[in-house]
């Protein structure tokens, strides 16, 4: 069998903050790293910026060899080194669009000189342009179609147009579309393609469950000073994560339920600074003294906070999967999550489903979960069975099939 090369479009790792896409990407890379040698397969990274390589190697030492030997998009396309400075990212994108979608496919190989051979391309960052006109295995992972489904003005129109254009082109070229949930798979079929035979749903496993260095618990001032009884919310700080309504729901209970004695801890990384400032302004204006924001928490701090919380509140407006739900289940914690997109599919019977736009609905769920210990225990009893249905074994089987095929 001829040696294979897996070319991984690693541009998403340039964004060092731990997004769901990057957690997924790193776990798949861990799988490929462990099985590639069995199939005489070389792994080649493409698109990692020089300025982030050191940070990635420090955090993920097992990736060092791949990161050190990674190539740029310009190198992959065979642009001579002397003229690379004249090719901006915008110019390359425009030329790629012409050679991929306007001229015949043979034009691509005439203009560019991509790596030849038995090539498998995996593109985990689904919002980027495809980088090859055709190959036997062009695999793209689709995490969510938030930019396409957005109807509430949370994203700028030009971002929506760009994502739709790139996503449409990516799924057109892909030979396999990996959807991380059935909800995302249905969205892909509805918004982007009728080629349902291309779509394969493969669930993710627990975030970082394969990256053992990130599973420890740790005591820090931020975790030692935690309230005695609290709900936890973990997500990026941006409008679709719906912190505004979660805070208002918590405050509703403060004002209207005398037996509600819970605090709320909001743990996240600022993605949208304006929204972050709006959340802090809301807390100050309403004088809500039992809400605490913990910014840029480590994985170890998050684990400690999860271990001691009443439950997770994850009433997002839209998700393609929902890693925080599995993070809570890992510690047998029930969740309050939204009745939309993928969240019911992941939470199943281990959580309470709410309307994310209805503050009272969220408040009622928080009140019930904090007061009714028998009901809470009934949810917890369901979690081990649900937890067993999410792991990385299915992803391992998928990649073994790809690598063993001719």
Q: What does it look like?
A:
The chain is an alpha/beta fold. The protein has two domains: 4-205 and 391-404, Glycogen Phosphorylase B (Rossmann fold, 3-Layer(aba) Sandwich), CATH 3.40.50.2000; 212-387, Rossmann fold (3-Layer(aba) Sandwich). It contains 18 helices and twelve strands. The chain has helices at 20-35, 50-59, 64-68, 73-76, 89-101, 105-111, 146-149, 157-173, 182-191, 221-224, 243-256, 273-285, 299-308, 323-330, 343-347, 359-371, 373-387, 393-404; strands at 4-9, 41-46, 118-123, 137-142, 176-179, 199-201, 230-234, 263-268, 291-295, 311-314, 335-338, 351-354. The strands form two sheets. The protein has a six-stranded parallel beta sheet, with helices on one face. A six-stranded parallel beta sheet has the order 9-8-7-10-11-12, sandwiched between helices. Helix 1 (20-35) packs across helix 18 (393-404). The longest helix is centred in the middle third of the chain and has 17 residues, at 157-173. The model has no long low-confidence stretch (mean pLDDT 85).
Report a brief summary of the structure:
The chain has 406 residues and is α/β, with parallel strands linked by helices.
